[in-house]
Specification:
six-stranded mixed sheet, Outer membrane lipoprotein wza fold like, 350 residues, 8 helices, alpha+beta
Amino acid sequence: MKLRPFLCTLALAVSTLTLTLSGCATYSDLAPGTKREIHSPVVSREEVAVTGALSAEAPPSTNYQVGVGDVLLLNVSGRPEFTVVSPTTSGKVQGSRVDGAGMLHVPMLGPVQVAGLTLAQVEQKLTGLLKKYLQDPWVIVEVAEYKSLPLYLLGQFRASGTYYMDRPLTLLQGLALGNGFDASANLKGARLTREGKVVPVDFYGLLTHGDARQNIWLKGGDSIYIPDSRNQLVFIFGAVKKPGSVAIPPGGMNLAQAIASAELRDAGFDFHHVRIIRSLSATRGELLVVDYDLVLRGEALPMPLVDGDIVYVPKSGFGTWNDVIADILPSLQTVSAILQPFVSIKFLSQ
């Protein structure tokens, strides 16, 4: 029968309107003047943390290691024939660019493996090789262009773009390259991605509360993304016809509105154990179990949702959190780029 889901949808709409207008209401017939205590619909709350920041890592060496894309300027005992010109997108620069195989192409010597070496080690290696052709060669190597350690600043930076590190940088130093944030920057949703995985670092804690543990060392290829606080989403899965993301309007959204927008299935759902995964920061979150039937009966206040909430309406009776995660994991993977950092780290990093 399709009557029950219709009635539930109608009740959701009525509860949303009634509770919005009156603050708290009941669907029972009560005598005038009756006072009734309204409770929270949350029946279970479990706080979860993920592995913290990587501040305990040893500081990287200050000796710059040559990498692919760097342009090196080579001076050999004042011999100009060892100076070469490499083409670039902006014209030409003096020096030789380290190719994709980590080779530096040197006149007379040909390709020389230099990637991973410090400048002093490159000088020592070239000096040894040139002794076959020159007597007591004096070799000086400098970096004309740093191009091997990119740092990508994306999103709500005032100066977003690609920057290249010429020395070890901390997270704060890397953020400073972006010249601050736009007013709409959402620091709680900011993420650092390294080698395809979100790093457990709390930008909000670092910048707002001065948590120095979050000020980790950056690595070449790191990507920092600061989302726009004006684009807030919740996600709803389970016993609904339209699973996926739902935009939070300027006035906010509660659980009733989210479920109504996703449309309940015709049958087979459990309002007593609605699950919500909530991000508190990039490294902390909550697992909530909500008895939404209490809200429908006017025995609990509306359940407000916040940016990044993941709502799961059980398809049948009460199950474990492991069952819930197993069911929604494929869906989370498809929207991983717009999930909160905590969710990505906790459930998608294995």
